[in-house]
Here is the input.
Amino acid sequence: MAGRLRDNEARHAVAEIERLLDEAERLDDEGHSLATEIVQALLQLYGDGLARVITVIDECGAAEVRERLTADELVSHLLLLHDLHPVSLETRIVQALDDVRPYLKSHGGDVELLGVEGSVARLRLEGSCSGCPSSAVTLRLAVEEAIYKAAPEIERVEAEGVVEPKRVARPLAIVPGNPAAVAARTETVGPWLPVDGIEDLEPGSTMVQAVAAERLLFVHLADGTRFAHHAECPSCGDALEEVTLSDSRIACPACGLRYDVRRAGRCVDNPDLQLEPLPLLTTETGLVTVALEAPAG
Here is the structure.
């Protein structure tokens, strides 16, 4: 019997199915009709089987089993595909926002779900996130990715308080839509990468670490809060290799300008300048990860 697929293997499998379906679209009429009938028959068969499983779980009152099934990424997508997911769309979005809220609050920001209209989720960024030059990056890397993963039927996210940065160094392509698109997006957009050595970073100190060939500045404040930014001064362009840390502020060793990491890297001395912050989250297993945008092209 074949072994169980890990989450990343399941995403690849879903993407491969989508590719094969695209190829089937290019068959002649007879071949396309036959492929369509096979897919529809399989979907109905497995959909009915899943529906029976959910019915048995409900009849047995196995709430914990149901909760664990919906928490599984692959099972959750299958339930969504067959319109069997027991958790409402809005509830899933709210839960997704709760997952990224610790990161937003660490920067003095927050997010609120205003409502869902069809396949569009409407949000409002609050606090430091509202009107912040890095709000668009925050929305793309943290908020949108969490929503698309929990609610793949959402095709677009609109947010009040988002300001596009003046300098976009690393453009990001968002692929909205269905579970297959989400699977492909997970492999190419906003990857969450582990940060080596950050567990040894003492409170009240900083370090520069290479992650996926990017030089990133990590700051560990005295209260235990961690922050991540691109290690480059937006004023002089110098590398922030040896910075001084005072409370939540760091100073560029070359030009001396100060930046407040607790306020998303905004410059204390020049409000027009800001570091490029990155989402930094800790997994359930304690692994510290950082999200990087996909490179252009």
About this structure: Helices lie at 7-25, 29-59, 63-71, 73-81, 89-106, 135-150, 179-188. Residues 165-190 have pLDDT under 50 and may be disordered. The first helix runs from residue 7 to 25. Residues 115 and 222 are 38 Å apart (CA to CA).
